[in-house]
Amino acid sequence: MNLQQRINAFVKLGDFLSQFSPDGIHKKDTIEKNDLFFDGFKHQIKLAEEHNAWFNKENVLFSLDGWSKSLNNSNINKWIEKYNFNAVESKKVAIIMAGNIPLVGFHDFISVLISGHSVVVKQSSNDKHLLPFLAKYLEHIEPEFKDKIEFTEEKLTQFDAVIATGSDNTARYFEFYFKNKPSIIRKNRNSVAILTGNENENQLLNLSEDIFRYYGLGCRNVSKLFVPKDYNFEAFFKAMYHWNPIINQNKYANNYDYNKAVYLMSEFQMLENGFLMIKEDNSYSSPIATLFYEYYETIESLKEKLETEAEQIQCIVSDGFTENEIQFGETQKPMLWDYADNVDTIAFLLKI
User: Fold this and answer.
1) DSSP 282
2) What residues contact 99, with CB distance under 8 A and at least 6 apart?
3) What biological-process GO terms show up in the record (predicted)?
């Protein structure tokens, strides 16, 4: 199977996924193998939500819509144009996936396959319905993928390299267990937003998407704000308010009630609006339904701090703060060339 065959297969997968978006699920007559897979995938979306209440239909469709927009000829060719795939000797790459948001390990999955390697996937129990079905679709579109894709729930044994994502604790285990294999080991990271007080209403509205999408469970979700001294949170809370229906989700509401009780009993100072609490805290990783904030003295001192603590940060959302910043509202819309932890997955896969 040559590179163009692999590209063509992923473009067809993108076409298939284009039928599933937050605007609705609409079957298209032009999609290859659609009679075999369309209704089945609707069922998998339903199963994913029943199995994991965090994976509500809106969030699953948001994820699928993002992938459908990424997997087209233009984006795929832009992604891979700087690499040389000619000398790749096919290896077996194990992927240990997290399960915090729908299809969170999909980029690693397509990276391994586009590189010409075989993949063995160990999924999280929280996210096990969507990817195997999409893998089956790929195998029907391009039968040469059939010997390239494997899923397992057993202990990983036969593989040449590994990409593993987990908490800081599991990362220490991964680093020890896979110390003799080429590896990418991903730990906890969080995203931050830099506010100056000059943000317009639209920017703050967009920021709410970075905070609440996927209930804040992703490493690209903003979990902390940096604000200037005497920052007035009134405009911020006003922009957040249209997300208030989120409190109707039971798991989110339970976390909100629990964390609010902990803060009140501990006499921590915090502000809240009935579905979001903000608390001054030096940490980056805030609990569900909570957003941490920290004051900064000067932009220069903040830049120095964030450079020192870069290994804890996935994305910086800001307007004119830094070269690699992400615009408000764009954290959950990464491009194919936006690598997690800024580790070039394709470059790693081409040298194993």
Assistant:
1) S
2) 52, 123, 124, 125, 126, 127, 128
3) bioluminescence
Q: How far is CA 124 from the centre of its chain?
A: 14
User: What is the dotted CATH code of the domain comprising 190-317?
Assistant: 3.40.309.10
Query: What is the average pLDDT value for the chain, to the nearest integer?
Result: 97
Edge-to-edge order in the sheet of strand 92-96: 149-151, 118-122, 92-96, 161-165, 183-186
Question: pLDDT digits over 131-174, tens only?
Answer: 999 999 999 999 999 999 999 999 998 999 999 999 888 999 99
First and final CA of the chain: distance in angstroms? 19
Burial (CB < 10 A; 0-12, 13-18, 19+), residue 248, is exposed
| Residue pLDDT, tens place only, 35-65 | 999 999 999 999 999 999 999 999 999 999 9
CB-based contact 121:109 (threshold 8 Å): yes
Q: How far apart are CA 296 and CA 35, in angstroms?
A: 56
Domain ranges for the chain, please list them: 3-187, 190-317
Top-level class of domain 3-187: alpha beta
Helix 106-114 with 130-141: angle, nearest 10 deg: 20
Residue 153 structure tokens:
């729930």
Helix, strand, coil % in the chain, rounded to nearest 5: 45, 15, 40
pLDDT the model gives residue 87: 87
